[in-house]
Amino acid sequence: VNELFDQNIWEKYGVGKDPRCANCMMHCGFESATIFQALKTPKDWATLIKSGAATKGGITAA
After folding, report:
1. What is the rounded end-to-end Cα distance, in angstroms, of the chain?
2. What residues does 54 pair with on adjacent strands?
3. Residue 21 CB coordination number (10 Å)
4. Which of 48, 51, 24 has its CA nearest to residue 36?
């Protein structure tokens, strides 16, 4: 497990460092900021719910 947290390993990955990372959709820490911006008004919430993206299991890709 310690090997996974070794900073030397992660320096090899990322956009511009590894071609497999070019179109990666893996968690990067910006998701919460995106959600806060996208759902600023009640109208935005209603649009999300009506689109079917909000389910009992959470928010999914619409």
Report:
1. 35
2. 59
3. 13
4. 48
